[in-house]
Write a structure and sequence with these properties.
The protein is mostly helical. Helices cover 80% and strands 0% of the residues. The chain has six helices and no strands. About 3% of the residues have low confidence. This is CASP-like protein UU1. Keywords: Cell membrane, Glycoprotein, Membrane, Transmembrane, Transmembrane helix. It is found in: Cell membrane.
Length: 183
């Protein structure tokens, strides 16, 4: 009888391996609320920036082609921020454990995408800021006052979105370095 018990325990499943980097990465989203707040700010600022710029693009009837670039970058940044916000909230609600959470590959991808979004936003906002002044949309005769104020608001919100993305990029880079050093 004792021999049959030893045989049955001999084939039991081995205990699940402990992966410190996965456990650490899963704890980021529920122990560090700053990343969730930054994701909310990214989404809100990029949504306002691209919607105001899209309205401005509609009003100038596409005569300034590079405004389309700014709208496209704003849409991509807003979609990325919404996806990251959804995942962050999912981790917070679920209470991500060691078996279900983020992986180091996800952390690398997040860092790279945060960096790309940051640089695309700053390039689009700065190109639009100089283009608005050079193209004469904000004319000195006062004819483009409404267009000028909307373009200034859009560029301002794009710069605010840039700041939120850059702060998030710094945080994800910090967490990535800590993860690499722990592993």
């Amino acid at each position: 009888m004792e021999e049959s018990q030893q045989q049955s325990t001999k084939f039991d499943a081995p205990p699940s391996p402990y992966v410190p980097s996965r456990v650490y990465l899963a704890q980021i989203y529920w122990k560090k609320p700053a990343i969730v707040v930054l994701r909310v700010l990214q989404f809100v600022f990029s949504l306002i920036a691209f919607s105001v710029m899209a309205d401005l693009l509609h009003d100038v009837q596409g005569s300034i082609k590079s405004l389309s670039y700014t709208v496209a970058i704003g849409v991509l940044a807003c979609a990325y921020a919404l996806a990251q916000l959804s995942f962050s909230l999912w981790c917070v609600i679920r209470g991500a454990t060691s078996s279900s959470g983020v992986t180091p590959l996800y952390q690398y991808a997040t860092f790279i995408c945060d960096q790309m979004s940051t640089y695309f936003l700053i390039s689009a906002a700065s190109a639009t800021a100089t283009l608005i002044d050079v193209s004469g949309v904000c004319g000195s005769n006062g004819s483009g006052t409404n267009l000028c104020s909307r373009s200034t608001a859009s560029v301002t919100f794009a710069f605010l979105a840039f700041l939120a993305f850059s702060a998030s990029s710094v945080l994800t880079g910090y967490y990535l370095v800590k993860c690499i050093l722990k592993a």
